[in-house]
Amino acid sequence: MNGLDFLAAAYSAIWLIIFAYLLSLWRRSARLERELDELRRGEQPSTRAG
Amino acid sequence: MTVWAIVRKDLSIELRTGETLSSLLLLALLAILIFAFALDPALLAGADFVAGLLWTTLIFAATLALNRSFLLEHEAGGWTGLALAPVDRGSIYLGKAAANLVLLIVAAALLLPLTAVLVGTTRLAPTPALPVVVLLGVTGISAVGTLFAAIAIRTRAREVLLPLLIFPLLAPLVIAAAKATAGALSGKSFAELRSWLLVLGSFDVIFLTAGWTAFDFVIEE
Amino acid sequence: MASRSRPLRDLLPWLTCLAMLAAIYLVFVAAPSEREQGVVQRIFYFHVGAAWMAFAGFALVAIASLWFLARGDRRADRLALANAEVGMLFTTIVLVTGPIWARPVWGVWWTWDPRLTMTVVLWTIYAAYLMLRRLGGGDEALGRYAAVLGIVGALDVPLIIVSIRLWRGIHPAVMLAKEPDAGLKDPTMKIALLVSGLALALLFTWLVSLRMRLQKVDDELARLNLEATPRMR
Predict the structure, then answer these.
(1) Residue C38 belongs to some domain of the structure
(2) Mean pLDDT, to the nearest integer, of C46-65?
(3) Closest-approach residue (CA) in chain C for B175
(4) From CA C14, how far away is CA B205, in angstroms rounded?
(5) What distance in Å separates the CA atoms of residue B158 and residue C208, rounded to the nearest whole number?
(6) Measuring CA to CA, which of A48, B50, B192, C105 is 20 to 30 A from C204?
(7) Confidence class of residue C227 from pLDDT cuts 50, 70 and 90?
(8) Burial bucket for residue C4 (CB in 10 Å: 0-12, 13-18, 19+)
(9) How far apart (Å, rounded) are the C-alpha atoms in residues B31 and B60?
(10) Which residues contact B84 (CB under 8 A, 6 or more apart)?
(11) How far is A49 from chain C (nearest CA, A)?
């Protein structure tokens, strides 16, 4: 492994870590949106105020 | 004064049952044995090793003992009583920390000669700095441990959480205590150990103050 | 608050991308190769920038925690959590790029160099904070407990720095001091470092804002769930 390989490894690792985090945020966000929708739909038929 | 009342109460329970101290000592002893089996005994010589072994085992054993000291109260619902009482939260913290400190002092006093003997070190040269170093060290462990044991006991994962919380924070204390103890066992004077003593002293002051202040936010129900 | 900062918030990802592109250009193209280390030295720009962010995140967790304990504002609690997660992310980047840089330059993957050692301890405190949040149960008071840890952790940092330096000082057998800031004589290198730092700071801010928004939805959901099942309680 020469210097360039190490350089590539380092920056690949950086982007990997960042994108892994963004992905986890995105997936969790999607799940929360789904739950929020279900909750809202579940509340529609009831006559509870607020 | 409340602090004194709490110290007396905890210590009298301990004097009667002796559970916490005996488990503490036994755990530390077992830890020493495990180290001796896992590592080459030929390498286990010298002041550095005695010091390192002492503090490692003290911290591990203390973590378990600290859990216990709060567990009894938590399960008996004692916290509600304490919380409702018109007591300054900070005093509760100091009282608990002092009681834990007494236990740790006793443990350290027994473990140090024990470690030295088991490790077979003959060329130790203890100086008057030794008890000071050990006292400052265990005070730090008690200061941090008491605060976070109170927090951990209130969560579900209390046994695993306490070590997770305090080990990282104790890093400077471990470094300073181990190095200073090794020095105090090798004939170093107070002057030579000045930097380490300063670190230990600062650690104790900062964390005792932090615990005393923060306890208001920990016991609020 | 949302409408006031909305334009800035929407601008953030674009600013981040722009800064990142500029940084990448400077790091890989514009900056000259270092004489002794060669191309590998280019890791340093993001490694050091990430380290700045790791420590900044730590300070921000402490500040947000203080604010939360003082005011009880849930936003502060979310800010603390977000900064802890993103801070840990950047600390991980430091600890991954460090060894990758160290190996070709010093021949070993790890050295107990003061800065790297300190970063490990920082990482463990971050980890403790996040574990407390995760394992702490749904207790209302969890935010307060975490805040205490956040503040106490920050108080510990000066002690960590001092003790680790003393620790290494006693065994002088190690390092040629790794002084990343010194030896940066070339102005282009200095600019590359600053722009990298800026890009990473923008990235940090953007990620924190994303995480906070996520947490707000999460808190909202938890609140709605609580309201939706009154009879079961």
Answers:
(1) no
(2) 95
(3) C163
(4) 47
(5) 29
(6) C105
(7) confident
(8) exposed
(9) 8
(10) none
(11) 11
**C156 → closest Cβ in B169, B175, B214:** B169
Cβ contact B–A (≥3 pairs, < 8 Å): no
Average pLDDT over residues B71-98: 75
**Partner-chain residue, chosen from B154, B199, B202, that has the shortest CB–CB distance to C139:** B154
Distance CA A24, CA B193 (A): 49
A36/C104 Cβ within 8 A: no
Smallest CA–CA separation between C20 and chain A, in Å?
A: 11
CA of A28: which chain C residue's CA is closest?
C214
Biggest alpha carbon–alpha carbon distance for chain C: 72
Q: What is the pLDDT at residue A41?
A: 80
> For A30, which residue in chain C has the nearest alpha carbon?
C214
Domain that holds residue C60: 49-221
Task: Please report the residues numbered 1 through 50 in chain A whose beta carbons come closer than 8 angstroms to any beta carbon of chain C.
Answer: 1-4, 6-7, 9-11, 13-14, 17-18, 21-22, 25, 28-29, 32-33, 35-36, 39, 42-43
- With CA atoms as reference, report the closest residue to B207 among B67, B59, B93, B56: B93
Tokens (6 digits) for C127:
């980890």
Q: Quote the ipTM score.
A: 0.89
Which pLDDT tens digit goes with each residue over B161-188?
899 999 999 999 999 999 999 999 988 8
CA distances, B82 to each of B10, B76, B148 (Å): 13, 12, 17
Q: Which amino acid is at B212?
A: W
Of the pLDDT bands very low, low, confident and very high (cuts 50, 70, 90), residue A43 is low
Q: Which residue in B151, B156, B171 is closest to C148 by CB distance?
A: B151
Q: Give residue B98's Cα distance to chain centre.
A: 11
Q: Does some domain include residue C76?
A: yes
Distances (CA, A) of C28 to B70, C23, C187: 56, 8, 15
B116: nearest Cα among B103, B105, B130: B130
Which of B146, B165, B192, B220 would best serve as a mutation to test chain C binding (most C beta carbons within 10 A)?
B165
Average pLDDT value over all residues in chain C: 86
Is residue B85 pLDDT above 90, yes or no?
no
| Alpha carbon distances (Å) from A5 to A8, A9, A47, C105 | 5, 6, 64, 13
Q: How many domains does chain C contain in total?
A: 1
CB atoms B172 and C163 under 8 Å: yes
All structural domains of chain B with their residue ranges: 2-218
Q: What do you get for the CA distance between the two ends of chain A, in Å?
A: 64
Smallest CA–CA distance, residue C85 to chain A, in Å, is: 9
